[in-house]
Structure formats: structure tokens, C-alpha cells
Amino acid sequence: MNIYVDFDDCLCETARYFSGLIDRMFGLDIPYEKIRYFDLQKSFSLTDDDFEKMMIEAHRPEVLITYDETPGAVEVVNGWIDSGHEVSIITGRPFSAFEPSRAWLDEHGLERVKLYCLNKYGRDNFIRNSSFSLELEDYYKMHFDVAVEDSPTAFKFFDHLPELKVLVYDRPWNREAVFPGEGYTRCFDWETIRNIVG
What we know:
By secondary structure, this protein is α/β, with parallel strands linked by helices. Helices cover about 35% and strands about 15% of the residues.
């Protein structure tokens, strides 16, 4: 089985970090549970300049490696690999974040997963001249049986896989999302994900 796993807010608690970051940078008190939109600029009501400053700060290598693991993620992913499944981390982070992202995976015992940086969100604007290690045309040639994703904005990248099971990791910004089809299931933790995949 080929399994797609998103990085931020599936493997690690990125938004919880961002909630503290905007408080430190801009004095904004917006708790994690109040992050209503995947578009963080909208959730935090930031100007273009402040959003860019926040994203650059959050993607510094020494910051990326500090994000907390989403409870249970590493154990489940390693269990899949032990069972012979192929796991690919498909992140919207730019390729400039590849090395610290790879280091985070390695430090958390996920040395065996593949890591790809795909321009899912057109985020070239927050780190100028960003590049990505996986182009859309190559991504669309890949096949997955299961995907773990939190972002409604990423659902469009599954349209070419009608049989795909999409396990939507429950987050405040996806609770009002309308799922595109019957293959989508909301999951509240990694234990639920493990039980569905088997």
C-alpha cells in the first residue's frame, strides 16, 4: 500500500507553534482552537508584510526542528513501514526547508520515509524565489491508496485518485469543510487512523 502523509499538523504541531509565535512577534493572543482558517494570514489578520515576516521566522531551520510531534504519529507511520507499506511525506514546505524537515523526521525515528516538497499552496510569496523538489506533473504520476491530510486546500490534489481513502486529521480550520466525496473520513487522532488503515 502507498500512503501519503502531510507534514504540518499531521506529523507535527505546527499551528500550535504559530499561535505562540504571533503572540511573541506581534502581541496577538489567538489560541490554537481559534485558528479558523487554513489561510493563516486570514486567521491572524496579518498584513502582507507581517505574514511574510512570520512565515520566514517559522521556516528558519533552527525553528523547524523544534516542532512537537503530533501524538502517536511516529509510532503509526513506523508500524506501516514495518508492515511493508510505502510512506511518502508530501509537504507544502519549500525546498529550502527540506534539510531541517529531513532532520526532524530522522530525529523522530522516521528515517525510512521519503520526503517531497510540493508547491501545494503557491507559497513562493513568503520566501522569495522558492523552489520545490516535486513538480505537480510528477506528483500526478504517483499513486496512493491512503492519504492523511488536514488542509481542505489540498483536497484538490486527490481528484486524480478516485479510489483514494483520505483521512482528514481533525483541526479547527477544517471543521466546517465540506468533504468532496465518500472517500473522506474525519479522524481525531492517530489511533483512529491506524485502525482505519489496518
